[in-house]
Specification:
alpha/beta, Nucleotidyltransferase, domain 5, 4 domains, 5-stranded mixed beta sheet, two-stranded antiparallel ribbon, 24 helices, 9 strands, RNaseH-like_sf, protein dimerization activity, HATC_C_dom
Length: about 600
């Protein structure tokens, strides 16, 4: 209700109240403080003569009784002993108390959630918690689940806001069945912050199909639901399964149809594992295994170091009369294999190769690894393998390890009469035959596989060669980039890159850092875009595989009925616990305490 003044201004009538029940208006001040003989309709039964309301309201507003009641209300309100003041003071005290209570409850929930643990059981609270007086408040599953959901939403919103601010990003997905045999698709997004690239887990998505189009649709639905721009997607990295990496019907092909700038980069760590697997399968002298060859480094190393001790144990088993015949025969078979010079040579070779494969694989699993650094590691490993062609060196090591100095002779095949007229090939001794058919075959297969894998990561190789490239080479590379990213880069890119190359030669800047750190973004805006796209490229899906460990820990056989929302909330809080620690939860506590302070 407002009063229209002569100058056109409107003044609110705070003293006027409307009752929806009686459909009348009342004067609040006169209702409280007017004497019985002075009470008008507005102070008693209410006023409803809407036709003459402006006239009657103006008369009442200027009446002596109304002014007296208004003065009494103002004087009472100014005193600190009013009921409202006491109520507000008590309400504020209750609010602060519940803020402290909820702060402690929230700290416990954050601590447990960041470690992938579930809330404490009622038995633990009854036995371990000091009960004190009264009843336990806010320890119910409903309140805890509400807090977990709120915290997960704040962490996810923080990640989404970072992605939108960074603009360019790349994705990696992988799937695995949970304890209830529901395939969970993990989504990991990589983007660039001012202090460097980061990889963030965002969500598990249950899937019902494994075709490339079905997997791609799950990812596209998530991107659309979170309001992330699909046109800013610049990279995708999956494993080498056909439904993921298929050139025509794989997930990467479907995503490329929606955004041709989403460069597909095979997982570097998995590619390195496949190199060792292919090298082992090419030679029948080497034992085959379905496990990852990078993970067998410890087993090979243990066998090499305890070679003689293992032989002694096997010999003792074969000579033990109390052992079963089958066990003794198996032990004798292992002894015959380990006493061969071929076994010693291959063991020394694989021990040397897997040692470097293991170290390189560990380095490639770093979430901050860049494409050029990964390529340099693979190229360095390729150079190392090329130096292993010295067969005599490993032959001597094999003799020392196995205690045998003669290679196993291959059985000579009988020659038929009709074959005697044919020209015989060059006959090789056992040492040369093993070198050609086994030793060099393994090394050549490793080198061939590595060259094939490295070629897939050569798109941005010039970024690491800024200092050594000539101006014409830089200009040619810049034109290629400008043609590929025509909507992201301006025509002045070649000149900026030449200028930036000259600056790198004068100052030793760290190329792995974002250009914003060096405060050069304003001077080289297009080079900044190039580096941000380059740094956001996903080179492995190791972060996605790490999320599977959290999945198995959170949703196990004791909690197989867990809902998808709770699984995502707990997994997000556990994996991105650094963000959870820095989330300001005071606004959550205040809003929650305000709703509970009247209880």
């Amino acid at each position: 209700f407002f009063r229209q003044q002569l100058n056109g201004e409107k003044v609110k009538r705070d003293w006027l109240c409307y009752s929806p029940f009686s459909k009348r208006v009342y004067c609040f001040m006169c209702k409280l403080f007017a004497f019985k003989h002075d009470k008008t309709m507005m102070a008693s039964v209410g006023y409803c003569d809407w036709k003459h309301a402006p006239r009657d309201l103006a008369r009442h507003e200027s009446s002596e009784s109304h002014i007296r009641c208004l003065s009494m209300y103002i004087s009472r309100k100014a005193k600190t002993t009013s009921i409202c003041k006491d109520f507000e003071k008590q309400n504020e005290s209750d609010r602060k108390y519940w803020c402290k209570v909820l702060s402690r409850v929230l700290s416990v929930i954050k601590f447990l959630s960041s470690r992938g643990l579930i809330s404490l059981s009622p038995e633990h609270i009854q036995k371990r918690v000091n009960k004190g007086r009264g009843h336990v408040s806010y320890f119910s599953s409903t309140v805890c689940e509400e807090f977990i959901d709120i915290l997960a939403k704040k962490v996810l919103n923080f990640i989404i806001s970072e992605i939108k601010q960074a603009k360019y990003y790349s994705v990696s997905v992988d799937s695995t069945p949970d304890i209830t045999n529901v395939d969970q698709l993990t989504i990991v997004i990589r983007y660039v912050l001012p202090d460097g690239p980061v990889e963030r887990f965002v969500q598990f998505v249950p899937i019902r199909g494994h075709t490339g189009s079905q997997l791609a649709q799950n990812l596209l639905d998530f991107i659309e639901d979170k309001g992330i721009s699909l046109k800013d997607l610049r990279g995708q990295s999956y494993d080498n399964a056909y439904n993921m990496s298929g050139k025509y019907k794989g997930m990467q092909a479907v995503i490329t149809e929606h955004n041709h700038l989403a460069e597909y980069i095979p997982c570097v760590a998995l590619s390195l594992n496949l190199v060792g697997k292919c090298a082992a399968e090419c030679c029948q002298s080497a034992p085959l295994s379905n496990t990852r060859w990078s993970a067998r480094h410890d087993a090979i190393n243990a066998l090499r170091k305890g070679y003689q001790a293992i032989l002694q144990v096997l010999q003792a088993i074969s000579d033990d009369e109390d052992e079963q015949l089958q066990t003794k025969q198996t032990a004798k078979g292992f002894i015959l294999s380990m006493e061969k010079l071929e076994t010693g040579i291959l063991l020394e070779l694989w021990s040397c190769v897997l040692e470097r494969f293991h170290k390189t694989s560990q380095a490639l699993q770093d979430s901050k690894m860049t494409l050029n650094t990964a390529t340099n590691l693979l190229q360095g490993l390729e150079t190392f393998v090329q130096t292993l062609r010295q067969f005599k060196e490993f032959e001597e090591k094999g003799k020392v390890l196995s205690g045998c100095s003669i290679l196993h002779r291959k059985k000579k095949r009988k020659v038929r009469l009709e074959e005697q007229s044919r020209s015989e090939g060059t006959s090789l001794d056992s040492s040369s035959r093993f070198k050609v058919e086994s030793y060099l075959l393994i090394i050549d297969q490793i080198l061939l596989s590595m060259k094939t894998r490295i070629a897939a990561y050569d798109h941005f190789s010039f970024v690491a060669r800024f200092k050594t490239m000539t101006n014409s080479e830089i200009q040619e590379s810049a034109k290629t980039l400008l043609h590929h990213y025509s909507n992201d880069l301006e025509e002045s890119l070649p000149e900026e890159m030449i200028h930036f190359s000259a600056l790198l030669k004068q100052h030793n800047f760290n190329r792995e850092c974002s250009i914003e750190i060096q405060n050069l973004m304003s001077a080289f805006p297009n080079v900044s875009v190039v580096l941000r796209i380059y740094l956001c490229l996903m080179i492995s899906n190791c972060s996605g595989e790490r999320s599977f460990s959290v999945l198995k820990r959170v949703k196990n056989h004791l909690r197989s009925s867990m809902s998808q929302q709770r699984l995502n909330s707990l997994a997000l809080l556990c994996i991105e616990n650094e963000i959870l620690t820095n989330v300001d939860t005071r606004d959550v506590i205040k809003s929650f305490a305000l709703t509970k302070s009247r209880k």
